[in-house]
Write a structure and sequence with these properties.
about 220 residues; rod-shaped; about 40% helix; mainly alpha; two-stranded antiparallel ribbon; two-stranded antiparallel sheet; 6 strands; RNA-directed DNA polymerase (Reverse transcriptase)
Length: about 220
């Protein structure tokens, strides 16, 4: 059994302090419970002089003459801003730590979706949220990571995908397959197999990062 949040009031005198001490000792003796002095605090009026506070503190040893309850100051005083600034700073630090860990975890999961597209989690999320393609767009590099049909890599449609129907014979076609690797330009013959609107849009994409990896954005 526990007795919490007990408030004892008295005058700031040595005799009153001794009475309170004796009451606490009697309570401990009769109940078998001990007062937790680490969580006990004496609060004085601002009119009580320092020497009286010290004398009362000697009568009630080990009890703090100031402290906190549930993380908050027991006595606030006149400067509320100064008292609560430390609490605000601790809350901000805790929130920043939570955000950092959550974003870090989200970033790791997103990177797994990119680098491990065939694992169980990636396939489950893809089937649930983006069955017909990708959930991000791609910035073209060498084109080796971008599926021509399923990935978002063109700008002329609201889906950022080509509108030409998928040719099952070339369902795994990569953007790199549409590039003449020897000279680093689009292979016009291959590009012409797409609808004209797709062909024109593809030919307008500059090929100035062929030495770089494709980047999801």
């Amino acid at each position: 059994m526990f007795a919490d949040d007990t408030l004892l009031l008295g005058q700031a005198t040595i005799s009153e302090a001794r009475v309170i001490r004796d009451l606490l000792c009697t309570y401990e003796s009769w109940s078998g419970q001990l007062v937790n002095v680490q969580k006990s605090t004496i609060l004085f009026s601002s009119n009580v002089p320092a020497h009286t506070r010290n004398e009362i503190g000697e009568v009630l040893p080990h009890v703090a003459t100031h402290g906190k309850y549930l993380g908050l100051p027991s006595s606030i005083g006149s400067s509320k801003k100064e008292v609560f600034n430390s609490i605000i700073d601790r809350v901000k630090t805790k929130v920043d730590d939570w955000k950092s860990r959550l974003l870090s975890k989200a970033g790791k999961e997103a990177w797994r979706l990119i680098t491990e597209p065939n694992n169980h989690l990636s396939r489950s999320l893809k089937a649930r949220y983006y069955p017909d393609g990708d959930f991000f767009s791609w910035k073209l590099g060498n084109g080796r990571s971008i599926n021509v049909w399923h990935h978002k890599w063109v700008q002329h449609t609201h889906t950022h995908k080509v509108i030409t129907p998928i040719d099952e014979e070339f369902k795994d076609l990569r953007v790199s397959d549409l590039i003449d690797q020897e000279v680093g330009v689009w292979d016009v013959v291959k590009i012409n197999m797409f609808y004209p609107v797709d062909s024109e849009a593809i030919l307008q994409i500059p090929l100035n990062n062929l030495d770089a990896e494709d980047l999801p954005v």
